[in-house]
Amino acid sequence: MTVESSQSPAPGCGGGHDTPALALADARARVLAAVAALTDTETVALRAALGRVLGEPVVSQINVPGHTNSAMDGYALRAADAAGDDNRLRLVGKSFAGAPFDGVVAAGECVRIMTGGVVPDGADSVVMQERTAASGDDVRIQGAVAKGDNVRPAGEDLARGASVFDAGRHIGAADLGVLASAGATEAVVFRRPRVAFFSTGDELKGVGQPLAPGDIYDSNRYSLYGMLAELGVEIVDMGVIPDDPDALEAAFREAGDSCDALITSGGVSVGEADHVVDVLGRVGDVGFWRVAIKPGRPLTFGRVGKALFFGLPGNPVSVMVTFLQLVRPALVKLAGAVPALPLQMSLATLAAIDKKPGRREYQRGRMRHTTRGTVVEPLGHQGSGVLSSMSTADCFIVLDADSGPAAAGAMVQVEPFAQPVWNGER
Ligand code: AMP
Ligand code: MG
């Protein structure tokens, strides 16, 4: 893969500061165009396929269900024998799930059947227990039964020989169950992308270390770790690299030799300690630098060795926004699946929103479910350094580049980024 030639040269490579930032949609299209999906596959045990991408199509070798069976507890019979309002049949046996009746149901006969029990030969329908009264082998059926009532045909879920999944399917919980229902013990999946990441900054300390004046803890490596772990890629944590071009160059080369993607944070602005774009220009290719979004403008994309390169800004909120908007879709494509477009919906805002025309903004919000429907509450502190706004938020309020402020009650575009399992309260 080659990255398109520089739209904006590295800050130290002559100009570029006044080059307009790319629109997010253009940046995303350029990133995706530069990603070649991995093609190596491996075979894994069924459960290990969760979160992985299928590397080849799956065809069902069996019918699911394997036999026509009952959807109810009741009696299997011939519908023609129960056409009237009050019918009497003779009980000739039973068919329980896993223990079929091995005879044939003749005219005037019925078989006790439980949910999942095989519908015996001769029978074509099941009447639910609640509509019957039994005494010994005499079974009374109230009301008419129609052919096929309460019967689940063999193969209604998956037919033998039919396609279960195409290659490129990202396996979720239901898919794992579907594969198990078809009897799969293993799955062929694409190799996981190997993704390295490091933080840059002389002020950064790892948790557990004492902080000198001006130091902060390196949080980006933790939020990045979380987002990468949720994606199921192979993670290579390269730690903190100081704001030193030689150290950065060595780290770039190491990742470029051994990984499919490298993600850094910090050092992509125009400050004197910001060396990432210069070093990328030296050891790799700068595809583009700067995207017209807030937060996250200095994002840099390119390539180093065999790795895609994402230089995320240092501010913790910018890291998460740019990862979700640009890095995650690229890693999904790299892993062999087609990335989903972010889900968007239009909701009324509970409070006025501040916004200047210029960049597309990803403000943090929280959806509120009220008796009048769902609305969005913009969170108070929108600074790109206020990471707690991300953990309080469950959605972005997405404001177009050209738009200005929004009044309370106005409809705004909302992009949920988390599906909470917990309601945020105690
Ligand atoms: P930079 O782009 O390197 O100038 O960083 C912008 C801001 O983000 C500065 O306030 C940095 O201290 C902060 N920052 C950079 N990297 C990290 C990190 N790994 N964790 C937390 N904050 C960071
Ligand atoms: Mg820095």
Molecules bound to protein: adenosine monophosphate, magnesium ion
Q: Structural class of the secondary elements?
A: alpha/beta
Number of helices: 7
Shape verdict: elongated
Explain briefly what this protein structure is.
Helix content is 18%, strand content 30%. By secondary structure, the protein is of the alpha/beta class.
Map the helices and strands.
Elements (H helix, E strand, L loop, with lengths): L23 H11 L6 E5 L12 E2 L9 E2 L3 E4 L8 E10 L13 E5 L11 E4 L3 E4 L2 E5 L8 E2 L10 E3 L7 H9 L4 E5 L3 E7 L3 E2 L10 E2 L2 H12 L2 E8 L3 H14 L2 E5 L10 H8 L1 E5 L3 E2 L5 E5 L2 E6 L3 H19 L10 E5 L10 E11 L2 E6 L9 H5 L2 E5 L11 E6 L10
Parallel strand pairs: 5-6, 13-16, 13-17, 14-15, 17-21, 19-23, 22-24
Antiparallel strand pairs: 1-12, 2-11, 3-10, 4-6, 4-7, 5-9, 8-9, 18-20, 20-21, 22-26, 23-24, 23-25, 25-26
Helix pairs in contact: 1-6, 3-6, 4-5
The structure holds adenosine monophosphate and magnesium ion.
